[in-house]
Amino acid sequence: MSKPIVAIVGRPNVGKSTLFNQIGKKQMSIVDDMPGVTRDRIYMDANWLNHEFTMIDTGGIEIESEDKILNSMRAQAKIAIDEADVILFVVDGRAGLTSADEEVAKILRNANKPVIVAVNKIDSTQLDMNVFEFYNVGLGDPIGISASNALGLGDLLDAVTAAFPKVEEDTRDEDEIRIAVIGRPNVGKSSLVNAMLGEERVIVSDIPGTTRDAIDTQFIKDGIKFTLIDTAGMRRKNKIDEPVERYSVIRSLRAIDRADVVLMLIEAPVGVTEQDKKIAGYAHESGKGCVIVVNKWDIFPDKHDRSTNRFTDDLREQIGFLQYAPVLYASALTGQRVNRVTELVKFVAEQQSMRIQTSVLNELIRDAISVNPPPTKKGKQLKILFMTQADICPPRFIIFVNEPDLFHFSYLRFIENQLRERYGFEGTPLKFIIRKRKEEEDN
Questions:
Q1: C-alpha closest to that of 384 among 321, 324, 424, 432
Q2: Which among 140, 130, 72 is positioned nearest to 97, based on CA atoms?
Q3: Are 133 and 122 within 8 A, CB to CB?
Q4: Which residues does 226 contact at the CB level (< 8 Å), separation at least 6?
Q5: What secondary structure does DSSP assign to 277-330, as a single string?
Q6: Which is nearest to 97 in space by CA: 134, 144, 55?
Q7: Are the CB atoms for 122 and 146 separated by under 8 Å?
Q8: What is the DSSP string of 35-91?
């Protein structure tokens, strides 16, 4: 199931981005500290009291005139109305209620979506009375906060999470594999979907942004049921000029959340871009299996002089956090190697679901330690006492140690490499939880 989406809207300079960053800094869900993961500031995954959700920052509006303020606000509010599960309407408690606030509120009142009013910049008791003015917008009880000082965020997040829709029961087939096709606009996502299906079920166009919504298509191959989610192309934040483009970004993030395995499309003649890293980074952080498809290989100018091995080496260097993902060189237009896509997806799905017995894991730990002893810090040595697998999809491991602070990232990478070398786990990220455990408890 996809996580609820919270869209933060409001006129300029009310503190939307400050609130966005403050919630993310204080309440972010599990963060992968692996170097090379690029995070796009338009979204951030967060967690409050076991409620996971995705925040969308609709800030950064350029203003030149009053009319443009109103037009921009209408556009931003429409995005929230169209796609968000909860709308967080941020206003400035110091400045008071403005005509621009009223314009946004007028649109939100007609929306069939929960709206929470956050009265920002209430950073002293003398300003508490300013909150009451915002009852006039007619959107329920306003909540006074100070985003910069992290005041009132608990009450605010309680109200936000209480408004989340009830989780619907997932009626999907247990053996079904859901595939999200992701990538920048115009890399050939819809063409790949059509090539895989063998028929024109999705509109194909060379105009970026044609696929506005995520389109689900089910098919069966070799007795396995697959669901293809053709996501709208994501483009860099400063290139998102139309509201519909930003709307497509939100839809794409939701599609990744719903998928088991993602097909990360790279355009061969262009190579890896910064936006490719951002898109892949979200899939990686979300724990999704991944297959990198280098599309348009048929028109790659150096394909005879430059081997696929060299291209792969460059790709691995630029997207370092996807070292585990298999790479397929294909052409959706000509059908080159398209028949291998579902084979790789099935393989990655199996790797995601792999479980390793605890006794076997601890044997691996003993072997790893004998080859490369744990590091020491200020005369104290890290001791790995126990390791067990807690979950699958993605595989998640808990490692009990004497002092978690001694567990350097490089040594965790070593343990991960040992796991992959012995058991594969190709195409899937591995998650680790480091916990402190007294040595006597292990004896």
A1: 432
A2: 130
A3: no
A4: 176, 177, 178, 179, 218, 219, 220, 342, 345
A5: HHHHHHHHHTT-EEEEEEE-GGG-TTTTTS-HHHHHHHHHHHTGGGTTS-EEE-
A6: 134
A7: yes
A8: TT----TTEEEEEETTEEEEEEE------SSHHHHHHHHHHHHHHHHHH-SEEEEEE
- Cβ proximity of 296 and 335 under 8 Å: no
Token couple for 190: 């819809």
Quote the DSSP letter at residue 208: T
Give counts: helices (H), strands (E), the chain: 12, 17
Locate 258 and state its tokens. 């719903």
Per-residue pLDDT tens digits of the chain, which is 443 residues long:
578 889 888 887 888 888 988 887 643 322 333 333 333 346 777 889 889 888 887 753 333 445 555 565 556 557 667 778 899 999 999 999 998 888 888 888 888 899 999 999 999 888 999 999 999 999 999 999 999 999 999 999 999 999 998 876 655 667 899 999 988 878 888 889 888 888 655 545 444 444 445 567 888 888 889 988 866 544 444 444 444 444 556 667 777 888 999 999 999 999 888 878 878 888 898 899 999 999 999 888 876 555 788 888 889 999 989 999 999 999 999 999 999 999 999 999 999 999 999 999 999 999 999 999 998 888 899 999 999 999 999 999 999 999 999 999 999 999 999 999 999 999 999 999 999 986 545 54
Beta bridge mates, 386: 400
Q: Contact 181/255 with Cβ under 8 angstroms?
A: no
Is 85:51 a contact under the CB 8 Å cutoff? no
What is the DSSP track for 218-267? EEEETTEEEEEEEPPPP--GGG--SHHHHHHHHHHHHHHHH-SEEEEEEE
